[in-house]
Design brief:
This is M67 family metallopeptidase. Keywords: Hydrolase, Metal-binding, Metalloprotease, Protease, Zinc. By secondary structure, the chain is α/β, with parallel strands linked by helices. The protein contains four helices and seven strands. The chain has a seven-stranded mixed beta sheet. The protein is globular, with a radius of gyration of 17 Å. The chain binds zinc ion.
Length: 201
């Protein structure tokens, strides 16, 4: 990658948004949670937290039970935990609901926002992009500016931000680069150039 195209290798994010992501992830566990943190066009400043539906998640009780059974039968094997044949489900995979995603896109357009952060949780594997995540990020919605945040709610997840495994990646043309996560109380005093803008809507 040449120098002009290199992006800041850091995600600066407010502490309350980190808590929002983790709260969502814990609520959905053992299913993967997913969502977007929108920010104003032209700034890399995540501000508006948007919980999204994981369309891979079943809705009825019977389905949930079947999923529990499938979950127990999965044999985990490191990075390939998400690739156990037909076992892929909302416990190993997320996908946005197409209609909701379109609605949120329109909403962001109307508000001059863009998806600064796209987050999701891993519930049994480390907070690192799976091949599915990489393919998704390299697909038609690809944007090299997006910070892909992945958190893990599995037992014993090693903390990277506070007590959480909360990591951020750039995914460009199938290439994954991890970046630092800097948690701030407010964007007022951080280096995002937001000093004339209120940090809460
Ligand atoms: Zn994933």
């Amino acid at each position: 990658m040449d120098a002009e195209r290199r992006l800041d290798a850091v995600l600066v994010i407010r502490a309350d948004l980190v808590e929002d992501v983790m709260a969502h992830a814990r609520e959905e566990h053992p299913h993967e949670a997913c969502g977007i943190i929108a920010g104003p066009e032209g700034a890399e400043r995540p501000e508006r937290f948007i919980r999204m539906v994981n369309a891979a998640k079943p809705s009825g009780d019977e389905a949930a039970e079947a999923e529990e059974r499938a979950l127990r039968s999965v044999v985990l094997s490191g990075d390939h935990a998400e690739y156990q044949g037909e076992q892929r489900s909302s416990t190993t995979y997320y996908t946005f609901d197409r209609k909701e995603r379109l609605r949120v896109n329109d909403e962001m357009d109307d508000r001059d926002e863009w998806p600064v952060v796209i987050y999701h949780s891993h519930t049994r594997s480390p907070a690192y992009p799976s091949q599915v995540d990489i393919d998704y990020a390299s697909g038609p919605l690809s944007d090299p500016r997006i910070h892909y945040v992945i958190v893990s709610t599995r037992e014993g997840a090693p903390p990277t931000v506070g007590e959480y495994e909360f990591r951020s990646f750039r995914i460009v043309d199938g290439e994954v680069t991890e970046e630092d996560v800097e948690v701030v109380e407010s964007y007022m005093f951080s280096h995002t150039g937001a000093d004339d803008v209120p940090d809460r809507a």
